[in-house]
Amino acid sequence: MIPYQIVIDPADGTIVWLLLAGLIVLCIFLGVRIVPQSEKHVVERFGRLRAVLGPGINLIVPFFDKVRHKISILERQLPDATQDAITSDNVLVQVETSVFYRILEPEKTVYRIRDVDAAIATTVAGIVRAEIGRMELDEVQSNRSQLIQEIKKNVEDAVDDWGIEVTRAEILDVNLDEATRGAMLQQLNAERARRAQVTEAEGKRRAVELQADADLYAAEQAAKARRITADAEAYATGVIAKAIQDNGMEAAQFQIAIKQVEALTAVGQGTGNQTVILPANALDAFADAFKMLKGAGK
Predict the structure, then answer these.
(1) Which of 120, 203, 186, 130 is CA-nearest to residue 155?
(2) At what angle do helices 249-268 and 282-297 cross, to 10 degrees?
(3) What is the pLDDT of residues 14-55, one digit of tens each?
(4) In this predicted structure, what is the pLDDT of residue 16?
(5) What is the SS3 assignment for the chain?
(6) Is residue 270 scored above 90 in pLDDT?
(7) Residues paired with 165 in a beta bridge
(8) What's the CATH class of domain 75-182?
(9) 77-82: long-range contacts, CB 8 A cutoff, minimum separation 24
(10) Has residue 284 got a pLDDT over 50?
(11) Where are the domains of the chain?
């Protein structure tokens, strides 16, 4: 009986090693995941959530774990949307909005909502209509920043379960229909005309006040001048009275003569006067004045 011998072909051993090496390479390829900085990967095992891979090198179990979703965590902008809204004073407006958001928890976004952009756009439209419905048209125009903050806060509360952060919400424009716009333009023109009339009236009132102040100042200055003149005349009268008291009638006659001379001088200085008519006793007044001056010199 010839014994049975097993002969191993060296070529078969090489194939086995090659298969084993290939399996190892495949396991490394499937088990090592490099996630970019701007992404997060959602890993499932047998159809269930297994892990969320962050940026960098990550290890998973080959053939069991699979990357089902690659989610970008960069900030996104929804397309500008326009929705109709009615204010509390029954004015139809068209509000153009823009929303920026980013995904913080991909596992919530993947398994709780199908179309994130459409869901956020619908939520924003409803919140915008609700917020504008509480305000009058003038408040919408003047309190836009406050309205934006309210919309942003309400949107954040609404999308919190979706693992989303609303980074910014903007109201780009508030459009009105032609009839409302024409009425507002008329109201604006009327308001401008009213302000112009008020400004003109204020100017006139201020001018009257200033003129009254000027007249009062002029009257005060004239009163002061009259008082000074009266004081001077009183002083001069007192001096004359003292001279008359000391020198008798000669002083009085001297003053009368001086006044006559001054009066004649003023008449002679008038413009256009070629002939001066003197009273008969004018020369006597001059003579009396000179006599009195000579007498005073002695």
Answers:
(1) 120
(2) 130
(3) 888 888 888 888 888 888 888 999 899 999 998 888 899 989
(4) 81
(5) CCCCCCCCCHHHHHHHHHHHHHHHHHHHHHHEEEECCCEEEEEEECCEEEEEECCEEEECCCCCEEEEEEEECCCEECCCEEEEEECCCCCEEEEEEEEEEEECCHHHHHHHCCCHHHHHHHHHHHHHHHHHHCCCHHHHHHCHHHHHHHHHHHHHHHCHHHCEEEEEEEEEEEEECHHHHHHHHHHHHHHHHHHHHHHHHHHHHHHHHHHHHHHHHHHHHHHHHHHHHHHHHHHHHHHHHHHHHHHCHHHHHHHHHHHHHHHHHHHHCCCCCCCCCCCCCHHHHHHHHHHHHHHHHC
(6) no
(7) 102
(8) alpha beta
(9) 78/117, 78/120, 78/121, 78/124, 79/117, 79/121, 80/172, 81/121, 81/124, 81/125
(10) yes
(11) 13-71, 75-182
The residue written with tokens 């439209």 in the block is 125
Q: Take residue 64 and report the two structure tokens written for it.
A: 């069991």
